[in-house]
Each structure stands twice: as C-alpha cells, then as structure tokens.
Write a structure and sequence with these properties.
- The longest helix has 15 residues, at 28-42.
- The chain is globular.
- Helix 1 packs parallel to helix 4 (81-90) and helix 4 packs parallel to helix 5.
- The chain has a 6-stranded mixed beta sheet, with helices on both faces. A 4-stranded mixed beta sheet has the order 4-6-8-9.
- It has 2 domains: 4-195, 2-enoyl-CoA Hydratase, Chain A, domain 1 (Alpha-Beta Complex); 199-243, no CATH class.
- It has 249 residues and is α/β, with parallel strands linked by helices.
- The protein has helices at residues 28-42, 66-71, 74-79, 81-90, 107-114, 141-149, 151-160, 166-172, 183-195, 199-211, 216-230, 233-243; strands spanning 4-9, 12-17, 49-54, 59-61, 96-100, 103-105, 117-121, 125-127, 164-165, 177-179.
- It has 12 helices and 10 strands.
- The structure holds octanoyl-coenzyme A (CO8).
- Octanoyl-coenzyme A binds at residues 22-23, 25, 58-59, 62-67, 69, 72, 76-77, 82, 103, 105-107, 129-130, 133, 135, 137-139, 226, 248-249.
C-alpha cells in the first residue's frame, strides 16, 4: 500500500498521508514519500494549490514515528529530515492547506504549521506532547507556533503538552477555518477560491509574506537542542513507556 495518495484535479493537488493504522505517524519513509510528491509537483504549471490530509478519519498525523524517534541520536537531529521536509513545504511555490480531521499532534501539528493555511473540522485535536516524551518540538514548532498564536500561548501549549480541542484551537488562531465535519471538503472550497486567481501573483504574495518569517537561528537551535535530547536516557524511558502502552499523553 502506498504511503501517500496523490492526485491533481482542476488545479488542486491533494496529498493524503496514508498510514491510518499508525494514525499517519510520520515515519522516515512516509516523509520521503511526501517529499518526492512535492518535488514532482513543484514544476507543475497546472497546479494552483496543494491540500494535505490524513487517511482514515482519525488523524491528520499523530506525530513523528515514536519507534523510530526512540532509536534516533544527535546525529539524526543534525540530518534534520523533518525540518527539511517542513521547510520544503513552507517554501513550496504554491499555497498549501492542511485539512485537519482528528489528531494533529507533535510533528503532525508541526507539519500543519508549515502549511500556509489550516482548515479543521470539529473532530480536530491538536497539541505538542513532545516534552512528555523527553524531546521538544524540533521541526519548526518552536518558532512557527509563536508566529501564529503568540509567544505566551505557544509556551503554555509547549510546556504543558496538553491536547486542545477544535473550538479552543480555532479561538487560539491555529486554524483559519473551522467546520462541523469534513475538513477536506472545506479545504477544497478554499482551494477553489484561491485557484481562480493568478497563480504567479499568489506565489509572489506567498514569498513576500514568508520573507519576514524565516528563522535560520531557530533551525540551528533545533538541531542542537533536539540532538542533546535525543541522546538522553529520559527520552529512551518515556518513548519506551509509550510504545509499551504504559503511558499516553
Ligand atoms: N508513532 C508511532 N506509532 C504511533 C504513533 C506515533 N506517533 N501514534 C500512534 N501510533 C500507533 C500506536 O502505537 C498504535 O499502534 P498498534 O495498533 O500497533 O498498537 C496505533 O498507532 C493506533 O494508536 P492508538 O491505539 O494509540 O490510537 P488511539 O486512537 O487510541 O489514540 C493518539 C490516538 C491519541 C494519537 C495516540 O496514538 C497517541 O497519543 N499517539 C502519540 C502522539 C504523540 O505523542 N505524538 C508526538 C510524537 S513526537 C514528535 O512528533 C516529535 C516531532 C519532532 C521531530 C524531530 C525529529 C528529530
């Protein structure tokens, strides 16, 4: 079974993370499949907008794959696979929309934060539980989240690791749109509105808006900070507890 389902229809690309049995947890292989699709789509003139979603209805993505993370060390942090993927998404030449039904946790929320826009349904539950696992949101969350919700709110969410329901997340400004059901259908409507406009003008607007928000220093701190945490015994114990179902955020 393919790890991503990708299709372009009427100028809108739909990329669906397809690992529902693991709540679309972002394994290295899944990340590479997303990256390959973005590479293939970056040059497409017939593409105006990209929608990202998660298969199965229960999760957009439940974070990085904890079994893989448990085995990672500071050397993997310096390779920064997730960071580079999310940066690739932020720099993608067309607008990107995360359509969030169900959980978007940890790296799954960071993936959504790297998209230009977020549309969610009432089933959405979001949060950054990394600190409960002995690491921190080191794939852009530490600087993308405060950019969107403000520093104080970002700290509160990150330090507690608590999971927020859809209404609260919308009130915090994490989503641009909240609908009762079916975030993908709502994202398609939004994409259709954007797709009516000049693709090049929209691209220039995206570049101009993003130019102010780049954080190279943030990237460097993430490699260093996550590298230290990935090597810690505390992380080993906490991730083992999750995998052995002794603990849930
Ligand atoms: N990684 C691996 N497997 C996962 C993950 C995950 N993140 N999330 C869920 N799964 C697996 C479960 O282990 C389970 O597997 P199995 O069926 O083999 O037992 C299956 O998916 C279904 O999960 P649940 O039975 O737990 O499903 P529920 O619907 O009861 O609960 C939850 C859904 C609430 C989403 C729950 O699965 C959960 O809490 N998942 C973990 C959430 C989490 O902690 N995410 C943060 C991970 S850390 C991270 O993202 C770091 C990003 C920074 C990257 C930096 C890299 C260097």
């Amino acid at each position: 079974m393919s790890l991503v389902r990708a299709a372009i229809d009427a100028g809108v690309g739909h990329l669906e993370l397809n690992r529902p049995e693991a709540r679309n947890a972002l394994s290295r292989e899944l990340g590479e499949a997303v990256s390959a699709t973005l590479d293939a789509w970056a040059e497409r003139d017939d593409l105006s907008v990209v929608i990202l979603s998660g298969a199965g209805g229960k999760a957009f993505a439940a974070g990085a794959d904890i079994a893989e993370l448990r085995a990672r060390t500071h050397k993997d942090s310096f390779h920064s696979y997730n960071q580079r993927l999310f940066q690739r998404l932020e720099d993608f030449p067309r607008p990107t929309i995360a359509a969030i039904d169900g959980y978007a946790l940890g790296g799954g929320l960071e993936l959504a934060l790297a998209c230009d826009l977020r549309v969610a349904s009432k089933s959405a539950k979001v949060g950054l539980p990394e600190v409960s696992l002995g690491i921190f949101p080191g794939a852009g969350g530490a600087w993308r989240l405060p950019r969107i919700v403000g520093l104080g709110r970002a700290k509160e969410l990150m330090f507690t690791g608590r999971i927020v329901d859809a209404d609260e997340a919308f009130a915090l400004g994490l989503f641009e749109q909240l609908v009762d059901v079916d975030a993908v259908a709502a994202a398609r409507q939004l994409a259709a509105q954007i797709a009516k406009n000049s693709p090049f003008a929209v691209q220039v607007a995206k570049v101009a808006l993003n130019a102010q928000a780049k954080s190279q220093a943030g990237n460097a701190l993430e490699w260093l900070g996550q590298g230290l945490l990935l090597d810690s015994q505390d992380k080993q114990e906490r991730m083992t507890a999750f995998l052995e179902k002794r603990n849930k955020p």
